[in-house]
Every structure is written in structure tokens, then in C-alpha cells.
Amino acid sequence: MSPLLEVSGVSVSFDGFRAINNLSFRIGKAELRAVIGPNGAGKTTFMDIVTGKTRPDEGRVTWKTSEDRSISLLKLSEARIAQAGVGRKFQKPTVFEDQTVQENLLLALKKPRGWMAVLMYRPNDTDFAKVADLAQQVGLADALLRKSGELSHGQKQWLEIGMLLAQEPRLLLVDEPAAGMTPEEREHTTDILLEAAKTRAVVVVEHDMEFVRRLNCKVTVLHEGSVLAEGSLDHVTANQKVIDVYLGR
Amino acid sequence: MKNLLFAGLAILLSCLMATAQEVRQEVRQGPAIQAVLQEHQALIAKSSRKTIAPAIDAIANSGLEQAQTVLQVWAEKKMWMRKSDLQFFIGAPTENGLIELTDFDGGAVLGALPKAEVKQLKPNSGVRALIATALVRFQLSDPDPARRQDALTSLQRDPDATLLAPLRASIPAEPDAGLKAQKQRLERLMTIGYDSDTQARIAAISDMSGGLGVDLRATLNPLVATTRNVVAGTFPAARPETANVAAVLTPGQDGFSQAQAYELLVAKGLAPPRITQADIRAALTANIKDEQVAGFAVTELDNDATRQQAYSVLANSGAVSPFVTDDQVAAALQSHVFFDSFADPSPKVTTAAVAALRNIDAKVSLNQAVDLTLDALSLASIYFLAAIGLAITFGVMGVINMAHGEFIMMGAYTGYVVQQIIPDHTLSIIVAIPAAFAVTFAAGVAMERLVIRWLYARPLETLLATFGISIALQQLAKNIFGTQARPLTSPGWLDGAWALNDVVSISYIRIAIFCLALIFLGIFLYIMKRTRLGLETRAVTQNPNMAASMGINPGWVNMLTFGLGSGIAGVAGVAIGLFAKVTSELGSDYIVQSFMTVVVGGVGNIWGTLAGAAMVGFLQKGIEWLNPSNTLAAQTYMIVFIIIFIQFRPRGIIALKGRAAGD
Amino acid sequence: MQHSFISKNPSVLVFLAILALFTLSVTLLSEGLGLGLISTSFVKTLGKTLCLCLIAVAMDLVWGFTGILSLGHFAFFGLGGYMIGMWLMYERTRLIVVQSLSQSEIPPTQSEVVDAIGNQIFGVVGSSEFPLVWIFADSLVLQLALVLLVPGILALVFGWLAFRSRVTGVYLSILTQAMTLALALYLFQNDSGLRGNNGLSGLQNLPGVSASQDAVSLWFLWASALALGLGYLLSAWIVSGKFGSAIRGIRDNEARVRFLGYSVVSYKLAIFTLTACIAAIAGALYYPQAGIINPAEMAPIASIYLAVLVAIGGRGRLYGAVIGAALVSLLSTWFTGGQAPDISLGFYTIKWVDWWLVLLGLSFVAVTLFAPKGIGGLVDYWTNRQTPDRHGADLGPDDGALREQEALK
Predict the structure, then answer these.
(1) What angle, 0 to 180 degrees and rounded to 10, lies between the N-to-C axes of helices B554-579 and B508-530?
(2) Class of A5-97+172-247 in CATH
(3) CATH class (in words) of the domain with range B365-662
(4) Which burial class, exposed, middle or buried, applies to C140 when counting CB atoms under 10 A from its CB (0-12, 13-18, 19+)?
(5) Total domains, chain C
(6) pLDDT by residue (tens digit) across A79-129?
(7) Less Cβ around it within 10 Å: N or C end of chain B?
(8) Contact across the interface for A119 and C243, Cβ inside 8 Å
(9) Cβ C165 vs Cβ B647: under 8 Å
(10) For residues B345 and B341, what is the distance between their CA atoms, to the nearest angstrom?
């Protein structure tokens, strides 16, 4: 079975600094994957490349659109990549703070994205139901009509995840979802992610080992822009190289 | 007493002549100038510009030493005619109203006569000009160098073929080296223009070829100027033998249209003119009878086709001249030869002149390129001066200051006020520069404290707030100084221009501004790279929070940086005020270009600003050169170019890349 | 659908009612039709103010809602004025020329008429040939189409270039300012074909209309009011739906919108072009009332004024833009018209003709600093809407994002 996303031999440098160095990565259709690594390992740049924000100097990024067709993501714009089914959650919660939770979710809902279609679009009852359902999933059911700017930090994170789910992506890239959350909020976040990974691929970038352990999935360790180790959490934490990198030599 | 004086003067004059001894000898024994004068008595007595030339020539060419005296006296309206015998003398009114006459030949005083018996000759200005030209030959050898210079200048301005020989004759004895060089150059030029010997002219042309002087081009251009002409016949049988032909033209080719050719024929009276719409209209109007023309109702004549029909009817009846058909035109063109001819009859000379001019033109365009480069360089330094303050506030601090132009204006007005207090221009400029810096520094600091620091990280709001300040300041300046331009006079030693040759020159003010720009680049680099303030500024620019936690006060640093940027704008204002008029709109004239400079160059880098200023300056001059008549269009195209340029380098020429760029 | 839109946005209905009431009362009080309490020139001033309100609405759409601080919309306004001005001037000159040529002994041909018109119009710039840009000037329909097409296409091309290369924030503002300057400088040339700095004049005379200016000024007032009403309605409809949600998202956080799969460029382009067209319509109605248009009208400063109008009224709310434009432009007329009484300070007399700009500039700084919500903020007091305490955080990371003080609970 060919993977959903395949990144192979990708390198990128900024002003001579190699942020990503011959990185290869693959993930299947319904899989949860945690990516860990020390600061500057290239985690965010890796996401930037997949979502089209940064163009790599070399390498390939292929995306399986159906059982027998694959395309390269390198030629597509960010918007196109998002439409192809890649959702991205930023490190800091980024929601539209001037708009209500409902408006945020409606905007993210999988619908035609062209400006004419959007101009003519008026939400119907099914759309409202869908939005209510999503809000339920991320625990914001009673905050639907509140301005999202008023939400707590954790609620904004959930709203953003909710917006990603509304997009119905086939791959979800999540950057440090648990940062700044209380233990209860973390637990809820874990549940949401595990639930999401049942039907789609989810890549979680995280620092917090405890959180990663709770996800209970395959782990990829990045270091200096390339993959250092891959496997279960116990497997990689036993790896001498990983220990060196994390604890210092 | 007076007689003695005159006699003394005459003797003194002749004494100073180079060959004084022999000449005096001749004066006593030789032929008298009076004879020459009498020969043209009638012409002289009733002089007019049109007829007087032979008389003047005769006097000037007489070879007599007195000729100069006669001409001078005549021109000064001191020549009188004795009515009894119609002879000419120097006349001077005496105290008792009589006219005392002195003979030209020998200078003998002949006694005074009443006014009724003599007549003063009053040559009009046209005649006097001719006399002055004739006098030049004498003045070329005048003992007074100033006179010789005058004579040369007048000859340079208005060369005259007859003066070539006297000029040549005066060269060997010329004691002054500078004048001698001028004379030699003029001799070469006049040889090209007037020498009768073709070989000598060609030699002179090849001597001078390659020079850049305006005078040389002025001499050569008439030689290569052509006039368009036509003769009957067919080429080559009818090739005009008399004229010095530059080129034979075929109508319809080489930018010489058939219509032009036919017009030439008409102008020379060799063909009838074509009937134009206006002719038709006039003819029809003239032939209206009972609301009808040639069988057509007047109301029908509102289109060209009907009008032509009506005209044809009139022409057939013989009332008007018939149409000239295209065939007739073609036939007329066929039966004539069109050619361009030189005014100068010698083909060898004109060929040499054409070649020399081509050579010169090549050199001139090369030098024009150099001149243009200098112009562009000076414009670039002005933009750099205007933009460097903006680069600091916009680039380093991320603050956009729409009032930057008004700081420039404020600096210029400070210069003006200082000049009102200190009249000495040099001193006042020396005082004005620090004064302008101080004033705008203070204004900048005040603005930063009062407005901008509340709007950090809100660049668009900063833009609008500073724009509010900008319109307020502009109007304030208008209220204080009025709408008319105030002079900011540069010191005398900055007047004039440094001229490399006749083509390349640059004014000292622009050189001074260029130097000022270099100095400011140096100061800026020194402050940024070598001082504590520079270090702190760079730290705050890159990471304000980190800088603050290291004990740097970002507010303080921002305030000083902003003050510095504004202060430099003030100094730029003094510099700009020296060559532009100081008005309340001075700043807004430069603000957009300054922004362009910063944006094109790339934000956050002084070298970028330099590159941006160079690009904007060179671009503007370059476009002006392509279309010199229209500076407005040049600016338009420049801005359009910059908009397109931004497409390819959205972050300017020198851009930060990667994460540091902050996107 | 429309019904629910109105019911969801009662302010639109209030606005339309006020506008209708205003138009009606001016009509009744005017010289042309009613009591004569309002002079014709003041009716024109009011009509022009309505046009300014319309372009302010456009500016609010593009800046207040989308976060693009365009300093070029007055250029589109001016272009609209030029396009309609060309027809007005051509047609009026044609009537005069035909009238005078009919006195001659032979009726004129078509080309003679055109030549004579050219002579009349371009005599001031030492030419008599019709430049290519006047090719459609004889047709009202085509020229009306050009009112929309020329600014629209310019906005489309410029916007595409700018947005495609992701020029944002102050860069974009400066670029739009440069575009405006380039256009104004181009029109200042005598050989631009639009009469250089003479501009187009005599536009207040409608060709073929014998009605007096009293009546004509009322027609234009009605047309301006209608245009403002429709423009407001359209704008309100646009920003109320998902499109409005998307452009506000672009204003506050462009990257997020992009990663949601929206093509930000096409949204910005759509709104930029649409507002350019609205601005052009406002200009096409404004200049016949002003009577004259010249390139100085399009100088970059005019576009910045526009931003000032919107900011003073309160950006991000359409009625704010209208209030700001109406208030500032009427005050400006009052102050610069010499009606405001001078203030004597004993040692100096403040003449408002000289000091109005100083006052405007400073009050603008004050609004930016102390009342980012502008006059619209007063409405919030009335409706009891308050600004949340966000501890100094803006509503998004982008330059155009709403500020803390502009956010509403």
C-alpha cells in the first residue's frame, strides 16, 4: 500500500543554513504520528514545506489523491494544498478573533472556495447542524455564538482543531497542540486527536514526552533537519543517538 | 590748448604702433585718407546700412594708419563734414558753441567753424555695427589686451570672412599666450569656414576633428546643412551640375514622402497645387447661386463626396481650377529630380566636414553619457540624503513616517531663518546644518514620544497619524512663511560649475551634495557599527523583548533613533533648499521618491538604501534622456517600472531572507 | 433570502430611511423644487458629499473590512470623473460647434464638425487632433461603460501584480500611493490626451438639457443618493455573508485563511476591483456637480484624505465611513468657505481658512491615538456595546488587523 504523503530527499537552506537536510518521511491513510525533536530540528520548516509555505531546494513531496493517482505538492499554492486535503494547525492558536465560533467553523466548512461561490453562499440547516456537531466534538457547543477572541487559550486551540476537522482534510498537521494547556484540557485534546486519526492521517509535532506517550503512536525523531530515529516511543527513547541529542553529549 | 592736446593724442597713438617710425613717415608723405573718404563722399554723407559697405571696406582696406582713427571717430559720431567743400574732419564742440575741426591726415587743427557751416555725421546703429566689424581688424592688434579680447569675442560671435587675413596677421606678434591660443583656435575655425583654398580648409577640418567645442560644431554645422531642391528632368541625365549634391532623393523613400515631394514642386512653382477640402469649400461657397451650387442644393453639400461632385461640375465649366489627379502628381514627380544640396560648393570640404562631425558626434554622445552619469549620481545622492532618514525610521524601526518630507521642509526653513540672522552665506550654512539637525531632531523626538510610541506594531495607523502631522505641519509652514518660495542662497564659492569640457559639467552644489551624502553614509555606518547607540538599536530592531531584558531601554533607543532619522532629514532639507525653492510643499515633492528608494533598496539595510537611491536616480535620468522634453512622463514611467520591479523583488534589491525576514 | 438579510442587519434599513428622508427634505427645501431655503450651490455641495460618502463606503470595504490600506482609490474616483467628463465635454462642444457651423453658407461635413470640436477642446494644449483615448467620447453608453471598465481594469491589473507577489501592509500602501502619483503625473502632461493640467471643464452643463442648474443639481442629488443607497446595500450584503467573514479573516490573519484553502489573491482582487468600480461611479457622479476635473484632484494626498475620512468615522462599520465622510467634508466646506467665525486671541487672529488643515491634521492624530473607533464609537455607547479588555492584544497578527480598542463584545 502506497502512503498518503511521501516526502523524499528534501533539503532547504536559509542564507546558507541548512534547515532541512535530505529529509524523508511517509505516512499512511489513517495513521497517527508524533514528530519530536529539539529546538531547531526543522519541525516547523517540515510543516512549511508540506503546506507549501516554503519551497524546498531539492527533493519530492508526493500526495496520493486516489488509489492509483499521485501528485506533487511542490507546484501547488498553499490554498490548493489545503483544498487537496492538508489541514494545518499553527503553534499559536490562530482563529479569527473578531468572529464568532460559528462564523469561524462555517468559514472552514468544506465548501467551494471560489470567491463567487462564497459570495453567493448562504448557510442552510444542514450546514448549521454540521457546525453544531463539530462544536460538540471539540467541546465548544455552548460557545457557538461567542466571539472567538473571548475564548480561553485552550478553547481557541480546540476551535482551531475544529476548524481543521470542518475542512475534512485527509492529513492533519498539528503543531504543539498541548502547549499552555491544563492537564484536563490536554486529556481532551488527546481524545480529539485520537478520534480524528481513526479516519485520517494526523501528524503531531510535540515537545512534551508525556503527551506523546499518551498518544501511543509511532514516533519520528528529527535532528538537524533529518530523521534521526523512527518507531515506538519506547524504541526511540532507548536509542543512544536520541539520548545524546536530547541530553547533550 | 585743445589743439595741442589733440595733436599730442594723435602722435601718441601713432607712437604706439608697432612700426611707428615708418608709419609716421608715411603719414606725412603718403596718400591721404581724405582722398578715400571723398571717393565715397556721397555714401558716407548719407549713410545707410544697405549701401555703406563699399565705403567702409574702402576705408578699412586702404592700408592707411589713419583708417582706424576715422572709423572710431565716425562710430563715436565725432566725424563732421565741412559743407563748403564736403570734406570730413574730426569735430569737437568748443565752449562758445563752435565746432573745432581737426584734419585726419596729419592731425592739423583747422580752427573752429559755426554749426551752420558743418554737419555732424550720425551713423545709425546698423551702420555702427558694420563699422565696429571693420574696426575689429585694427583692434586685434591693439596694444590694450582687453580690447584685443573684446575684438576676439566679437569675432567669435560673428565671424567675418574678410577678417581672416587680419586675424592671421595678428597671431605672430601676439604677446599674451592665452589670447594667442584663442586667436589660433579662431583662425582654424575661420579657415574652415572662409578660406578660399579648399586644401587649407580640409586640413583645418582634420586638425580640429575630434574636438568637443561648441564653436567647432557651430562652424561645421552650416557646412553640412542641406537644402532640398528640385530640377526638371530625369535622373541621372538631369543631375544638377552646379550644386554640391548631398543626396539624390526618391519620393516615397527615406522619409521623403510623395506628398512632401509634390509640395516642394508646388512651392517652387513647378506644379499646380492640389485641391484641398478647404479649397473645395471656398470654391463652392463662392459659387452659391439661389441656394444651389452647380446643380446641387446647398443642403446636400454636407459630405465630401457630394462636394467633390459639385466641384467637378464647376471645374468642368471652367469656373475653378480642375482637380490634380494622382496620375498627374505621379507624372510630375517622375519628371523631376529631387536632391539635397550643401550650401558650400566644395564637395571635398563638405565630405570632410560630414566625416568630422560624425566623429565629433560619437565623442559628444560618449561625453553626454558621462554627463548623464554625473547628473544621475547627483540625483541619486539627493534621493539618498532624502531617504536615509526614512530608511532609519522605516527600515530599522519598522515605523513609517509620512511627515518625513515635512522634516526635510523644516530643515530647509531653518536654513532660511538662519540666513536671515547671519547674512554671511558661508557662515550661515555652517551654522544652519547643525541648527537644522537640532530643530528636526527635537521635532522627531517630540513626535516619537507623543504619537508614534503608542502605535508601535501598528504600521498602518502610524502611517495615517504621521500623515495627519504632515498636513498640519505643512499648513503651519504656509501660515508662518507664506506660500511664496523663500530663497536659501548658497555661498559664493558653491556657485558655478566644474566644466570638464563643453559637454560635461557639474555644478559645485551638486558636488557638495554628493560629498554630504558620502559623509552621512560614513556617519551612519559609524553610529550603527561602532557606537553603543548603534549596537542597542540593532539589538532592539532584532528582538525588543530580549534587548529590554538585557538592560536596554527600547523606548529610549527608539526615541534616539527616530530623532537621528529626523535630524538627518533636516540636514537633507538644507542641502535640497540650496538648489530647489523652499516652499511648504518642498517635502511632499520628495516623499514618494524617498519611499521608493527605501522600498526598492530593501528595508533594514543602509546599502540597500544606497542601491535604491542609485537605481531610482539613474533610472529617472535615463528615462529623461530617452524622452528629454518631458520630465513628468519620465517620473510616470519610473514609478511604473518600480511597481513592476517590486514584482520580481518584493523585498527590494538587498533583501533579508529566511526567518529573519519575518514572514 | 433578502428579507432575512435586512432583518439581520437593521442598521441598513435605518440608514436607507435616513438617506431617503435627507434627500426628500433637501428636495423640498431647495430652490429647484420647493421652498428655496437651500441654495443651488449648497445642494451641489450636499450631492458631492453623498458621492464622497459612497467612495468612503468603498474605502471602508477595502480597508476596514479587508485590511488593505489603499492610497489609490481616489485615483479610481478621478478616472470615473474623467470618463464621464469626456462625454459631457465632447457632446456639449459638439452641440455648440454644430450650432455655430450651421450659420455658415454650406452645411458642414462630419469630419469638419469633428475637427472643429477637436479645435475647441484641445486648443488649450496647442493641439486639435483627437487622441486615441477619446475614440468612444461620442457615445454616452460606451463612455458610461468605460466609467466602470477603465478603473476596474486598472485595479485588476495593479491588484493582480501587487497581491500576487504578496505585497502587504505599508508596502502595499506605498505602492498604491506610487500608482496614484504616476497616474496624476501622467495626466498632468499636455500630451496625455486629457488636456493636461487644464483638465476637463464645463461638466455641470448637461448637453441637450435646457433645465436650469437648480433642477439639474437636484437630479444629481437624487442620483447620488440612489447610488449611495445601492452601494451601501450592496456593501452591507457583501460583508454580512461568508464572503464578509472571509475578507475579515484576511484582514486579521491572512495566513490562516490561506491554509483554510481560500485563494487570498482572488478575494483581495475581487474586493479591490469592486471597490475601484464603486469609487469610479462615485467620481462619475461627483465631477458633473463640481463642474471641473483636473489631475490635481487625483494627487496622492486626496487618497490619504479618504483614509482620514473613514478613520474619523470609524473603520470596519459602513455607517461609520458615511458619517466620517459627511462630517469632515461638510466641516471642511464650512471652514474653508470662510463661513466659520475667526477667533481673535488678542495678539493673533485665527483665520479658519488658514488653520483648518492644522486642526484637521491634529484631530486626525487624536482620533488615531485616543479614539480608534472614530465617531462610530459613539454609537456603541448608545447601543451599550463595549470594548473587551484584551490586555493590549490586537485581533490578529496582520498589519491591517483590528486593534484592541476596535474590538467589540
Answers:
(1) 170
(2) alpha beta
(3) mainly alpha
(4) middle
(5) 1
(6) 888 888 898 888 788 888 888 899 999 998 888 888 888 888 888 889 999
(7) N
(8) yes
(9) yes
(10) 9
